[in-house]
Amino acid sequence: MIELTINGTTRQLDIEPEMPLLWALRNELGLTGTKFGCGIAACGACTVHVDGQPVRSCMTPVSAVQNGQVTTIEGLAVDATGNRAITAVQQAWVDHQVPQCGYCQSGMIMAVSALLADNPNPDKATIERSVSNVCRCGTYPRVSKAIQALIAEQATTNTPQGETA
Ligand code: FES
Ligand code: FES
């Protein structure tokens, strides 16, 4: 039996310890916002947070996150009182019309959210290193525009843009 804390709720799952977290999320818990792309930790479609850090769940066994707090895209937009509240990153994605087909975007948003929560003013090299997610639709210019807008907004409001708005 594996115990996982996902989006603030602890669940007991009758699964093997080596099962990738992605399969536990999608197949056992029905949290299908986290996507399968490459399966080899290369594309970032499966990105979730574990204790606030971005993790590629396709190559992460559930045994490795048993003591951590896992957050998926479904749990991202929840404020401190548990109410739904779009995050600043999600709002920037809307404002800049970032997604095309949308398939990669939950992973993209999770990667950007973790980066900006950790570093509100990342330089170009840090952004490229931290947000190495693959988008087959080529939304990179709009992703970049949205990130720059979030950095500028953070500079004027002093509100970490990786947090809930
Ligand atoms: S599906 Fe996990 S990185 Fe591509
Ligand atoms: S928006 Fe289609 S793969 Fe990124």
Give a short synopsis of this structure:
With 165 residues, this protein is an alpha+beta fold.
General description of the model:
With 165 residues, the protein is of the alpha+beta class. It folds into two domains: 2-76, Beta-grasp domain (Ubiquitin-like (UB roll), Roll); 88-157, Orthogonal Bundle (DNA polymerase, domain 1), CATH 1.10.150.120. Helices cover 36% and strands 13% of the residues. It is built from six helices and five strands, in the order ββαβββααααα. It has a five-stranded mixed sheet with strand order 2-1-5-3-4, sandwiched between helices. Strand 1 (2-6) and strand 2 form a beta hairpin. Helix 3 (88-95) crosses helix 6. The mean pLDDT is 94.
Number of helices: 6
What is the 3D shape? globular
Q: Sheet bearing the most strands, described?
A: 5 strands, mixed
Based on secondary structure, the structural category is alpha+beta
Task: Give me the strand/helix succession.
Answer: EEHEEEHHHHH
CATH level 4 superfamily of the largest domain: Beta-grasp domain
Low-confidence stretches: none
Topology of this protein?
Blueprint: E1 2-6, E2 9-13, H1 21-28, E3 47-50, E4 53-56, E5 69-71, H2 73-76, H3 88-95, H4 105-118, H5 124-130, H6 140-157
Parallel strand pairs: 1-5
Antiparallel strand pairs: 1-2, 3-4, 3-5
Helix pairs in contact: 3-6
Residues 99-105, 135-137, 139 line the site of one FE2/S2 (inorganic) cluster.
Name a few traits of the molecule:
alpha+beta; five-stranded mixed beta sheet; 2 domains; DNA polymerase, domain 1; 5 strands; 165 residues; binds FE2/S2 (inorganic) cluster; 36% helix; Ubiquitin-like (UB roll); 6 helices
